[in-house]
Amino acid sequence: MPADRRHRNPGPGAAALLLRFGLYAAAIGFAVLAGYLLYLDRVISGTFEGRRWSVPARIYAQPLEIYPGLGLSVDEFEVELKRLGYTRTGSLSAPGTFHRDDRVLDVWLRGFSFSDGYRPATRLRLRFASDRILSLDDESDARIPLVRLEPPQIGSFFASHGEDRLIVAPEDTPPLLTETLKVVEDRRFDAHPGFDWMGIARAFWTNLRAGEVQQGGSTLTQQLVKSFFLDNRRTLGRKLKELAMAIILELRFDKTDLLNAYINEIYLGQDGNRAIHGFGLASEFYFNKPINELGAPEIALLVAIIRGPSYYNPYQHLDRARQRRDLVLGLMRDQALIDQPTYEATVSEPPRLSRPARRGGRYYPGFMDLVRRQLADSYDEQLLGSGGYRVFTTLNPRIQEQTESAIRTTLQALEAQRGLPPDELQAAAVVTSTQTGDVLALVGGRRPGFPGFNRALMAKRPVGSLMKPVVYLNAFESGRYHLASQIDDTPFIADPSRPDAWTPHNFDGKYHGQVPLVRALGDSLNVATVRLGLELGVEKTAQRLAELIDRPIPNAYPSLLLGAIDMSPMDMARLYTVFASGGFSARPTSVIEVRDETGALAQHYPITIRKVADASAIAQLNSGLRSVMSNGTGKTSRFRNRGVAGKTGTSDDFRDSWFVGFDNRHLSVIWIGYDDNRPVGLTGAAGAMRVWDELMRSLNPVPLNQSLPPGFIERDVDYATGAWARSDCAATVRIVLPNKVDLPGKPGCGPSLGERVKSWFD
User: Fold this and answer.
1) What predicted TM-score, i.e. pTM, was given to this entire model?
2) Are residues 479 and 454 in the same domain?
3) Residues forming a β-bridge with 267
């Protein structure tokens, strides 16, 4: 009979084995979890205790200096204040506000850390005449000689990921903002350990009913973790990781630090390829004011945007953003953060937005290209985009916008008057300080607010007659010539021994026999200039040009004498700076200094000049360039008799129209042409000089004031012949000459005997 088959229970040995296995598994799991948590702790601590963010470099223009006597109307000053985000109010209520009563304007300037120290917030009263400042007083009615507005930020250089932000310290954050964040996003923020069971339960129930993830139930700490460390995937693993990291953050750091990190980190919008992070930058982007000047309406809108920066973008979906803002305002009222009258007054009006602020260099991309080039010598792109530097530049926003306006107005007029295809002419311009080489304005194209090909820096075009002053400078430096010296302006073959012998021709096909150098330069006579250049040596001209612009010149053919060389407007600015400054070379510069994120000086860019030309030769050359304007190719300028100097330039077949002009303060280089190099049909005077004329209407030129070197005098001569003439004679010009030069008198209009005797003792 078969034996009984009975069920057997595991013995004590098997149970112990299972228990031991469970304990081992738990221990291993605990060790893995502990290790993972330690890893997360290291990641979090390393980030929060080190540099938390890549902070872009901020680029600033020159500050506007205001003082009694400054040529600035009250309307123009109001424009400058609004550019900086100042608000016009009924009375001064806080820094960043101003009040105007006809020609009296009170302003409460914001504090600012200038390169030479901190200027605290200051109240001022300005009184204006029709076109200038009459007086400048502080709040105690004491007269102020000069004060600076804070410099406008004109752009930023941010890292390749495109994040941009302005770091805000806890003490600079409006209390109303922090309280509103808690009311709307996380009411138990001050009490929970990083997560909120009630919020999670509420989100779980909502998601369960919907059958999908619709609500996160995240605390501010969890939102910070997600923005700082995680992606946007909605998986259980990512949610558990978020929870663990939130707990670690709460254990490691206090609530104030976490809330400040959230305020600086949260994503609040997009501006092209630039991501707007943090309330500091969002305040400037949406309202053009610093965060500490935000009121309840602005705070409510920014907090409303958190839920969906694209969905609630007020620039694109104003009604939607307004509804969400009003909901936030209702919560603020219910929690006694604002009173009922404030609520009612705010919801009755739409959000008041500024136009998107001028950031990222999009308004001045041409100038920003120059800044980037200069900084590249000292800073790599990654450091520049993340180190939190402040870069102070030479840009003058008023001159920049006046230059842009002059180009826009003139090109439209030229196309209309000459029947040219609309919107095809291109232009570039560089405006510098005559004494320092500081670049005050730079326009890279007809649409200056859009990045792209920067013609001011990169367009290499034949410069035509802009090269001729180098030939005449050589002549004066040789000591063999002066402005009344005669040169032959009759046809000839240049270097007839060469198989490619070249015959220069004058622009109008006319020749004038013997002419003085002042006329040859003033009328831009090609034949006379080539004769002069050949007598001095073409190689000498090439060598001198290389010395003046500090770069090698490969072309030493006779055609170089007439500008058969491709150069950029910036190259021309460097060349003519030597003339305008009295013989000193100064590399055009855009950066004054760089300060690090603590405000300490990181690098200073001093003005570096060196003498490269003889003062007496420069005095004679500039006298000739003034004659260009008064009697020569520039005589159609409305400023011909204002003591300014200039030179027109036209390349072969009228493909390029050039003009360089300078007074005692500003040097301007203008180019007009087509990008495809087809003829533009404009001489330098008919095209580029018209842009300069339009610009000078705003800049109000100051006569060139350069002292006479020893041994030189000013004398009136006949422009056509160089003969000594009385100042009341027709077609005379006053030029600089060596005092021992003996000139024949102009027949019928020469100097008197007394004048001749007096000249013996000059």
Assistant:
1) 0.83
2) no
3) 277
Q: Which of 89, 121, 151 is the last residue of a domain?
A: 151
| 535 exposure class (CB count in 10 Å sphere: 0-12, 13-18, 19+) | middle
3-state SS track over 308-336: CCCCCCCCCCHHHHHHHHHHHHHHHHHCC
Averaged over 740-754, what is the pLDDT?
80
Residues 224 and 320 in one domain: yes
Q: What is the pLDDT of residue 671?
A: 98
- Which of the residues 78, 185, 401, 415 is marked catalytic? 185
Q: Is residue 248 predicted with pLDDT exceeding 80? A: no
Distances (CA, A) of 228 to 125, 399, 571: 46, 42, 46
In this predicted model, what pLDDT tens digit does every residue of 4-19 receive, in sequence order?
545 555 556 777 777 7
User: How would you classify residue 459: left for phi > 0, otherwise alpha for psi between -120 and 50, otherwise beta?
Assistant: beta
465 part of the active site = yes
Identify the active-site residue in 218, 465, 485, 637: 465
Cα–Cα distance measured from residue 276 to residue 273, given in angstroms and rounded to the nearest whole number: 10
Does the pLDDT of residue 261 top 70, yes or no? yes
Based on the fold, state whether residues 690 and 595 are members of the same structural domain: yes
441-477 confidence digits (pLDDT tens): 999 999 988 888 999 999 999 999 999 999 999 999 9
Domain region containing 725: 712-760
Please say if the pLDDT value at position 598 is more than 70. Answer: yes
Count of domains observed in the chain:
5
- In the residue annotation, 597 being an active-site residue is answered as no
Last residue of a domain, one of 151, 181, 214: 151
